[in-house]
Specification:
The chain is built from 4 helices and no strands. It is about 65% helix and about 0% strand.
Length: about 100
């Protein structure tokens, strides 16, 4: 089952992309089917899949920070700055590790 992005949950884009990529083989087989010739032009290319993986890696950082912050029974403002600092540091490190 494909998941949709939800406007009320900003982390849903990460969950949606993660799930989509887990279905890559099935999606590719669907588009390769002779009965799907009329929509085969919409099949994602290897470069499209790579782009989605890169976006997923970027969104994963914020998703994990959000999970930590929302998992606390009483989130405190004092935890916000360290979480935000970690988020920025992780995104900066991605600049060196995600070449695309």
């Amino acid at each position: 089952e494909l998941l949709l992005d939800e406007a009320t949950r900003w982390d849903s884009a990460y969950v949606m992309l993660n799930h989509l990529r887990s279905l890559r083989q099935a999606i590719d087989l669907f588009f390769d089917s002779p009965t799907q010739r009329s929509i085969s032009k919409f099949k994602l290319s290897p470069m499209d899949w790579q782009f989605l993986q890169d976006v997923e890696v970027i969104l994963e950082v914020s998703f994990l920070i959000f999970e930590i912050m929302s998992g606390e029974s009483t989130p405190m403002l004092s935890g916000t700055y360290p979480a935000f600092k970690t988020l920025i540091e992780q995104w900066n490190s991605l600049v060196d590790h995600v070449p695309h």
